[in-house]
Amino acid sequence: MVETKRETVLQQAIDHYHLLMEDENLTRSSLKALDDGLKRARLIFGGRRLSPYLRPDFVLESDWKRVSAICETIFSTLQKVKDAAVDSDELLDELGVTEIERELVLIDPKYVQACPTARLDSFLADDSYAYVELNGESPAGIAFSDSAREIFLSLPLMQKFQKTYEVYGFEGRPRLLETLLECYKEFSDGNPKEDPTIAIVDLKDLPTVEEFELCKEHFELNGYRSIICSPDELRFSDGRLKRGEDEIDIVYRRLLVREYLPIIDEFPALIDAYRAGAVCVANSYRGLILHKKAMFAVLTNERFADLFSDDELAAIKAHVPWTRNFRDEKTFYYDEEIDLI
């Protein structure tokens, strides 16, 4: 009965939105406002507009709360895997962490969270909620989502829709900044600078540069000097990571490990400062542990079940797809013992 009511409420909202779209003038003016808003907000990725469609994806508040609770549980399991993997060659082998990557993940970032800005990609269907993968290294889209939310809520079509339905959006950049500052406070043993300088670090000329500008804008509006730079612009001297005359306190790392490793010897300032504990880097390189595609093979493998509580195991079984590294061995497919080959 509860599920039927949920489906009815959601469908009624969708039907009402579609009914409003039958007003051609309203739809046309909303489409123009959307197009203009995307241009003005620089919501461009790879030369195309981020989301040029008038139909949003409605999620009920009850579903959002349920999904949030599930994510919190799953993230607690990921944190446990990270904590165990740092001291376990078996886990690092299972995850496929290479020797050079192990050198990075064993460096202490001086804060406990493995992936402060991780993203669990998932599907929410009528009868299920399941994860596809974990982006645990440096997920994109936070600032783009903020701007898209502001644009959509301002559309004439959505304004009229909100006369009947209460609509909420997400605010990612405030939470991102809060998270970076929390990591920095822990990194600084509870005594951080009041006005740390934040560097957004990635390679040059990537399609995400527009998002970096949006993040920089938000950080500076809140009183934190911010710069966008690439690893070749950095130097490590006098115990500080620097870009020109700027001394950097926090690195919002968008530079992926697979992109940095080929140039790490040529441009070592970032890793040298990180290894020396001279700069707070988020996400830390320990996020690489959770970013590995084999993470689900650890979560769903009975060999590692002792890491998790009963509630966590139940959440894993319900929402994480059964996964194994392919090799010649026996394992359990849920309750049935099978041969992988």
List key phrases describing it.
single chain, 341 residues, alpha/beta, Rossmann fold, 4-stranded parallel β-sheet, 3-stranded antiparallel β-sheet, 14 helices, 15% strand
How is this structure best described in words?
This protein has 341 residues and is an alpha/beta fold. Among the domains are: 1-58 and 141-162, no CATH class; 171-282, Glutathione synthase, substrate-binding domain superfamily, eukaryotic (Rossmann fold, 3-Layer(aba) Sandwich). Helix content is 45%, strand content 15%. The chain contains 14 helices and 13 strands. The strands form five sheets. A four-stranded parallel sheet has the order 6-5-10-11, covered by helices on one side. Strand 3 and strand 4 form a beta hairpin. Helix 2 packs antiparallel against helix 6 (142-154) and helix 3 packs across helix 14 (310-319). The chain is globular, with a radius of gyration of 23 Å. It starts with a helix and ends with a strand. The model has no long low-confidence stretch (mean pLDDT 92).
